[in-house]
């Protein structure tokens, strides 16, 4: 089974492209897409995910484990969301990851022309990420369970994460809960690079995570400010990397050299420069090692350092 929580509206027995009540889905292995009739009770969904997430016990005898939440980007249809979810889950499982992988499906269309509307819907539903998953998982952690929650956000999914944490810190009912994430990983992040410094907007994201890793590709044409569909927005952190003012818990990994030398491997993918990560064994291994958190950022074997910067090994 695969597990997704979905914030889309429903129409005619199918999910739409507008915000709607959150549904917690259990998806059979034979399904090629997720549908509203796959919804199960919220409590049952969490219990099943936590059962998968448990990997052992800590010195105090408490169950330990990992949950990774994947957040998709814009212009992503339902079959592709599920396909990438499974690529991540199966790729990590093959490397030894024993925790759970779940996905947050926020309402987006399946055309790049819908970029601005997708961005609006992303902002409208962003808080659901915190209220419907991050905080509940944090509550489950204490006092008798030590399950760590992580996030992997792609493209506009990073914007969803960014807005969710900023919004959550403005709400007293959520601030009183001691919720946090372990590892936050951004792929091709569609977020202004300037906003990822020590600004008020990013402060919430940095405050609620142990480590933030940004994977930047300077060859990412989708994130180019010259793109007509992107209406000349500011340079994106998924293209130019984190600003020098980013907090010490943030680390930038340049994947441009890797992508440039391996272009032929991803020649059949649409927007490969923006989406190759899901088909890359080296990327998935770097994500896996980052999740483990056992090796210092500069010593993870899938990376090398040059002139004070970290790069993914080709």
Topology summary:
Elements (H helix, E strand, L loop, with lengths): L1 E10 L2 E14 L11 E2 L1 H12 E4 L5 E9 L6 H18 L4 E6 L9 H27 L4 E9 L1 H13 L3 H4 L5 E7 L12 H8 L1 E8 L20 H4 L9 E5 L1 H6 L10 H4 L5 H12 L10 E4 L2 E4 L2
Parallel strand pairs: 1-6, 5-6, 5-7, 7-8, 8-9, 9-10, 10-12
Antiparallel strand pairs: 1-2, 2-3, 4-5, 11-12
Helix pairs in contact: 2-10, 3-4, 4-6
Report on the architecture of this protein.
With 314 residues, the chain is an alpha/beta fold. It has a single domain (2-312), classed as Rossmann fold, CATH 3.40.50. The protein is 34% helix and 26% strand. The protein contains ten helices and twelve strands. Strands 1, 2, 3, 4, 5, 6, 7, 8, 9, 10, 11 and 12 form a twelve-stranded mixed sheet that branches. Helix 6 links the parallel strand 8 (181-187) and strand 9.
Based on the model shown, name its key terms.
314 residues, alpha/beta, Rossmann fold, 10 helices, globular
* Beta-strand fraction estimate: 25-35%
Radius of gyration: 18 Å
Head-to-tail CA distance between termini: 33 Å
Instruction: Give the uncertain stretches in residue-range form.
Output: none
Q: Which architecture name does CATH use? A: 3-Layer(aba) Sandwich
- Percent of residues in helices comes to 25-40%
Mean pLDDT: 86
CATH topology: Rossmann fold
Number of strands: 12
Task: Give the domain tally.
Answer: 1
Query: What's the SSE pattern?
Result: EEEHEEHEHEHHEHEHEHHHEE
**What's the CATH H-level homologous superfamily?**
Alpha/Beta hydrolase fold, catalytic domain
Number of helices: 10
Looking at the structure, what is the overall shape?
globular
Q: Can you identify the CATH class?
A: Alpha Beta
Give a short account of the largest sheet: 12 strands, mixed
Derived from helix and strand composition plus strand pairing, the structural class reads: alpha/beta
């Amino acid at each position: 089974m695969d597990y997704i929580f979905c914030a889309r509206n429903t129409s005619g027995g199918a999910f739409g492209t507008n915000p709607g009540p959150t549904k917690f889905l259990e998806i059979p292995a034979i399904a090629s897409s997720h549908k509203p009739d796959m919804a199960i009770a919220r409590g049952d969904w969490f219990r099943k995910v936590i059962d998968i997430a448990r990997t052992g016990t800590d010195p105090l005898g408490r169950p330990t484990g990992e949950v990774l939440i994947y957040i998709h980007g814009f212009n992503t249809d339902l079959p592709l969301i599920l396909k990438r979810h499974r690529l991540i889950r199966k790729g990590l499982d093959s490397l030894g990851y024993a925790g759970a992988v779940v996905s947050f499906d926020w309402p987006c269309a399946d055309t790049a022309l819908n970029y601005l509307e997708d961005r609006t819907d992303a902002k409208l539903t962003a808080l659901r990420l915190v209220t419907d998953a991050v905080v509940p998982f944090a509550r489950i952690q204490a006092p008798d369970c030590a399950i760590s929650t992580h996030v992997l956000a792609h493209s506009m999914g990073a914007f969803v994460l960014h807005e969710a944490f900023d919004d959550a810190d403005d709400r007293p009912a959520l601030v009183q809960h001691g919720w946090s994430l372990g590892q936050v990983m951004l792929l091709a992040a569609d977020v202004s690079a300037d906003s990822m410094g020590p600004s008020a907007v990013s402060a919430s994201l940095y405050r609620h995570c142990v480590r933030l890793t940004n994977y930047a590709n300077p060859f990412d044409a989708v994130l180019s400010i010259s793109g007509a569909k992107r209406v000349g927005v500011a340079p994106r952190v998924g293209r130019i990397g984190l600003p020098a003012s980013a907090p010490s818990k943030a680390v930038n990994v340049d994947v441009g050299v890797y992508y440039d030398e391996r272009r032929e491997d991803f020649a059949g993918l649409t927007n490969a420069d923006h989406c190759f990560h899901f088909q890359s064994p080296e990327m998935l291994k770097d994500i896996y090692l980052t999740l483990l958190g056992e090796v210092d950022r500069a010593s993870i074997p899938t990376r090398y350092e040059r002139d004070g910067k970290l790069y993914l090994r080709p």
